[in-house]
Amino acid sequence: FFSIDIPKIGARAKIIANGDAADKFENGQALSSGVAHAAGTFLPGMDGAVTLFAHSTDFEANVSQYNAIFYRLDELTAGDLVTVWYLGKKYDYRVVGSRVVPPSDVSVFTSQTGEAKLYLVTCTPRGTTKNRLIVEADLL
């Protein structure tokens, strides 16, 4: 009932709703089986920002071991398409940009009302937890 498809990077996965990004155990459970939706952020179809997060890794050979669905997230550029399915409805988003922030910047993990946006979050550089890559996309 909740999934993501990013054709450019071949990322397709189910999404586990309302994952607590601050709870390492809960977070780990969700990320072992899919992409996590950050608790407290909006769901598709609501007037606000949806935040999804998943693992990255340093080597492609480790993708399946760590369920690193966002391994190639850094390859997305403005104009790329991301599709989210929620409760049988399709939501298409167009990437508008990306930025790198320190792990202490949790702004996209908070409730942001207004324009319907999608934030995709993973660690960067690949294979480290040094920073967070945030890809921003607007609902079409």
Describe the structure.
The longest helix is centred in the first third of the chain and has 8 residues, at 24-31. The model has no long low-confidence stretch (mean pLDDT 86). An eight-stranded mixed β-barrel has the order 1-2-3-4-7-8-6-5. Strand 2, helix 1 (24-31) and strand 3 (35-38) form a beta-alpha-beta unit. With 140 residues, it is mostly beta strands. The chain has two helices and eight strands.
Helix amount, in percent?
under 10%
**Which spans have pLDDT < 50 for at least 5 consecutive residues?**
none
Q: Taking all residues together, what is the mean pLDDT?
A: 86
Structural class category: mainly beta
Question: What is the CA-atom radius of gyration, in angstroms?
Answer: 13 Å
Through-space gap between termini: 20 Å
Please trace the helix and strand order, writing H or E for each element.
EEHEEHEEEE
Biggest β-sheet: count, sense, barrel?
8 strands, mixed, barrel
This entry's quaternary arrangement is single chain
Describe how the helices and strands are arranged:
Elements: E1 2-6, E2 11-19, H1 24-31, E3 35-38, E4 49-53, H2 63-66, E5 81-86, E6 89-101, E7 117-124, E8 131-139
Parallel strand pairs: 2-3, 4-7
Antiparallel strand pairs: 1-2, 1-5, 3-4, 5-6, 6-8, 7-8
In short:
The protein has helices at residues 24-31, 63-66; strands at residues 2-6, 11-19, 35-38, 49-53, 81-86, 89-101, 117-124, 131-139. The chain is mainly beta and 140 residues long.
